[in-house]
Automatic annotation (TrEMBL):
Stretches of the chain forming a coiled coil according to its record: 79-113
Domain HTH merR-type: 1-68
Protein name: DNA-binding transcriptional MerR regulator
GO MF annotation list: DNA binding; DNA-binding transcription factor activity
Source organism, top-level taxon: Bacteria
Keywords: Coiled coil, DNA-binding
Amino acid sequence: MRIGEIARRSGVSVRALRYYEEQGLLVPGRSPGGQREYTEDAVQRVRAIQQLYAAGLPSRRVAELLPCMDTDTTTDHQRAMLRAERDRIRAQIDELTATLARLDELVDAADRRG
């Protein structure tokens, strides 16, 4: 499929897809005319990239973790990275949960005062 089709199906911009290609995160084939051609698997890969970015990972870390999604095997280093990122995200969730609880208290107090 062409770049516009994968952009539409994965919910990202063409510009983002080109950036992923520049970063080595997404490698399309090329048609005889030089146009990018993507496989069906590319849609899921782009969604995975988006999830990793949404979790706050930089391009370098995304590039290191993507192979874990492509194969059923991982290295000790990759497993350590996955655990570290999971722990980092859990800590963010805990902080956000505490912030939400504090905001709930403030809203309740403000509502009682009228």
